[in-house]
Amino acid sequence: MIRAPKFVIVGCIFVALALLFFTGSLSLNLGTAGRMGPGYFPLMLSVVLGALGLSVLAIGFFHDGDLPSAPNIRALIFVGLGVGFFAYAVRPLGIVPAVAVSSLLFSLAGREFKLLTAVIAALVLSLGSWALFVVGLSMPWPAFGPLIW
């Protein structure tokens, strides 16, 4: 008997994804543990994901849990917009504005949105991303892209 439907649903999704990636990795050269081919790592990750999915699925049968609730549509929309904006804006705008606007969009996903907190987080994340990736790791991304300069 299912006692925690949320866990059963998530476990089934994990197992289905694991099977999908497992079958996809079999079409690649696996190699050996000492000399890994391009399919070895996806195969091992799919095995780990499948084991995780089975363990989550088992929890759904043995522990009590809540019924699934409706998905948070607001969060899905704003997180999707943030990821999409960053993907399309990082080259023309540069890393600083792309991270700043994306983090503001991510902040709108929550129900407790506060403008000052979101702006401070956007500044810290954008400058931190620039410092880490451009200055620290010497990634070839401009801080501000051609549409800004």
Describe the secondary structure blueprint for this structure.
Elements: H1 5-25, H2 40-62, H3 73-93, H4 95-107, H5 115-136
Helix pairs in contact: 1-2, 3-4, 4-5
Kindly describe this structure.
The protein has 149 residues and is mostly helical. The protein has two domains: 5-62; 73-136, no CATH class. Helix content is 67%, strand content 0%. The chain has helices at 5-25, 40-62, 73-93, 95-107, 115-136. The termini are far apart. The model has no long low-confidence stretch (mean pLDDT 91).
Summed up, the domain count is 2
Helix content: 55-70%
- By oligomeric state, this entry counts as single chain
Low-pLDDT stretches are none
Total of helices: 5
**Would you list the SSEs in sequence order as H and E?**
HHHHH
| Derived structural class | mainly alpha
Mean pLDDT, all residues: 91
CA radius of gyration is: 21 Å
Q: How many DSSP-defined strands?
A: 0
Categorize the overall geometry: flat
- What proportion strand? under 5%
Q: Give the terminus-to-terminus CA distance.
A: 62 Å
Main sheet makeup: none
Transmembrane segments: 7-28, 40-63, 75-95, 115-137
Protein name: Membrane protein
Domain DUF1468: 9-142
Keywords: Membrane, Transmembrane, Transmembrane helix
